[in-house]
Amino acid sequence: MSQTTLVTPSTCCYCGVGCGVLIEHDGEHIHGVTGDPSHPANLGRLCSKGSTLHLTGDLTARGLYPELRLGKGLARARTHWDTALDHAAQVFADTLAEHGPDSVAFYISGQLLTEDYYAFNKLARALVGTNNLDSNSRLCMSSAVVGYKRSFGSDTPPCSYEDIEQSDCLLIAGSNMAYAHPVLFRRLEEAKARRPEMKVIVIDPRRTDTAELADLHLQLQPGSDVALFHGLLHILLWEGWIDRAFIDAHTSGFDELKRTVRDYTPAMVADICGLRVEQLQECARLIGNAPSFLSLWCMGLNQSSNGSGNNTALINLHLATGQIGRTGAGPFSLTGQPNAMGGRETGSLSNLLPGHRDAANPEHRDEVARYWQVGQLPDSPGLTAIELFEAVRDGRIKALWIACTNPAQSVPNQTLVHQALAACPFVVVQEAFFTTETCRYADLLLPAASWGEKEGMVTNSERRISHVRPAVPAPGEARPDWAITADFARRLERHLRPGQPSLFDFTGPAQIFDEFKWLTEGRDLDLTGLSHAVIDEIGPQQWPFPTGAHQGTPRLYADGEFPTADGRARFVAEQYRAPQEKREPRYPLTLNTGRLRDQWHGMSRTGTAARLFGHVEEPILSLHPDDMQRRQLKDNALVRISSRRGSLVLPAKADPSLRPGEAYVPMHWGDRFLKGLGINVLTQPAYDPLSKQPELKLSAVAVEAV
Ligand code: SF4
C-alpha cells in the first residue's frame, strides 16, 4: 500500500453474508479491496467476488447522464436532471389524474440500501397512494417471510453466524452455500475441521460442492421437501426423539400436525422423494440425537410453488425437537441479496409496510400514516412481481419505475416480461449499469451511484446492520438512489399536494435512517437505539437494538416466548403438493437454475471483470450422463432446450452430480450474451399462493440436439 492510499471501511455489495471490506483508494479511484478483520460477519475473509470488487469499476458499462426519449420509436438522448425529473413528474401526475394511483408501479431491489428503500416506500405509499411497490426480493425471500410469520408470528430469523460454528448437527436444504454464501461456508468448513464430530446433512437434488462436505447427502426429487420434512417428523415421533416439554410449554397446533404427518410413512416418503428408507432414518437419527440442531436454507426451498410450506415444514422440526433459542440451534434462512432484510424492515414488498407491518392491517396503515402525517395509506392490495409484469403486459400499469434491478433478465417467463416492458407507455429505469437488458426499454434512464460511491445501511442474514460507505465520487452525473427518488418525489408533490410542506426534505442517509427507525419503535425489530453514528462507534449490530441498548441481540426466542397472540410458536400442518410443472413426454426433464461461484445475478457488475470468467466462461446445460447418452450427445454438443414458454440453444455436458431426468443451468446469462431471451425464457411463473414467490427452480423442459 503506498503512502497516498486511503482506506475506507465498508460492506460488500453482493450476497447476504454481508462481509466487511476495506476499500483502498486515492479519493478518485478504487485500487484494492481486502476483508475487514474487525467485521463480525467475515473476520477478514472475502470470497472471489468480494475480493475483486475493485476490478469492476469499468466506466464503459456505467450510466453517466440521464437519457430521455419522447416517443417509443425514438433514440434516447442525453438530458439534464431537471428536465428528466420534471418530465417524469408530469407523466406520473397525468397518469395518476387519468387512471388513479394503482395505474403506476415501482419495482425495486434487494440491493438498494435501507435509506433508498425507505424513500421509495414513502413515495409509493404516502405520496402516490399505491401499494404497487414490489421488489426482486419477491423472487428470493418472500417464502421465508411467510414461513417465519406463520410459525413465529413475526419475520424474525432467530440465529447468528456463530451458531453455525457451534452447532452439533447442521442441515443445509436447497442451498449451495459453497457458491452462494462462500465466506459463511468457509466458516462452516473451518468449524467442521476443528470439530469433526459436527454432523452436516445436505438436502439437494444436485451433488454440489456444499454436498461434498456432508456426512449425509439426501439427493431428493426436486420439489419433494415438504414430504421429506413431514417424513422426518414421523420418524422423530415414532422414535420418541421429540421434546414434549417444549411442545407443551411453547407451541400450539401439534396435534393437528401429528395427524397430518401420521400419513407420511417412511416408505411413502422415500417413494415421493426418490430416497431410501434407511437414509430417512439416518437423517432423523442425526437430528433427534443432536445436542444442538441448526438448519440453513435458501432458494431451493423458497423458489417453489410450495415455498412457504417448505419453510414451515422445516421450522416444524425445530419446534418439535425444542431446537430453537439455544446456542447452535434454530432455523436460519440465508438471504440471497445483500439487503433483502433491509427491504423487509422498510416494508419493501407490496404486502408490507415499514417496521414489519402489514399493508392489509388497518391499524398498521394508521400508525404509518400518522407518523408520515398523511391522511391515510392505500388499502388496495399491491401487485407482487409476477402479477405486476402481467398487469404491465395487460395495460393496467401505465407508468413503471424500476430501480437497481434487471427484470428483463431475472423474472421468469421472459417472453411476457419483454412484451410488457415494450408495451408500457412510460418506463423509468434508475440504474448504475446502462448495459442491462432492462435499460433497453427505458423511456427515461437515470444514472445511479453504485457501491463505493454511495452511503447507507444494509442488514445481512443474521439481522446485522452494517454501514456502506462511499470512497470515491460517483462518475458523471450519477446520484445516490435515495436522492433521485426524493428529488422526483418533491417534483411530483408540486402536482399532487401543492403548497404543502414536503414529505421528502431528506438531507442525507443518516437523517433518513433516523426518520425510519422510529417506525420500528416497540416492534420486533426495534432499531431505535441505532443510528449511523452509533454503528460507526460500536460497529455493526444485530437487531433488535432498542433505545438504551448497549449491544445487539444475537439470538431470539431464548425464553420460549414468541410474538403470537398467545405467545406460542405455531406448528403449521401443510400437505405436500407436487411441483406445478410435471415431467411429461413432450417435456421429460426438470430444469433447475442457480448461481455460479464467481458471478452475481445478471452480471452487470461481475461481468465487467475478466478474472471472474476464469471459473466458468459460458452457460452450459448440465445433464446426467444417462440423459446425454439417450440423446446421443457428446460434451459441448449444442442442444435446444425448450419449455412451454420458449427455447434456447446452449452447449451441453454430462454431469454425474445430477439425478437422471434433471437438467441444470446457471441463472446469470440474459439476452445480451445469448441468442433468445436468456435463461429465464425457460423458467415458469407459477408461484406459491401465500408468498407469491415463483417456482424458478422447477420447469419442465425438453432437450434435443441441434
Ligand atoms: Fe461479498 Fe458474499 Fe463474498 Fe462476502 S461472501 S465477500 S458478502 S459475495
Automatic annotation (TrEMBL):
Its cofactor is [4Fe-4S] cluster; Mo-bis(molybdopterin guanine dinucleotide). Keywords: 4Fe-4S, Iron, Iron-sulfur, Metal-binding, Molybdenum, Nitrate assimilation, Oxidoreductase. Residues 5-61 form the 4Fe-4S Mo/W bis-MGD-type domain. Belongs to the prokaryotic molybdopterin-containing oxidoreductase family. NasA/NapA/NarB subfamily. This is Molybdopterin-dependent oxidoreductase. The lineage of its organism: Bacteria, Pseudomonadati, Pseudomonadota, Gammaproteobacteria, Pseudomonadales. The chain holds residues 1 to 706 of 902 of the full protein.
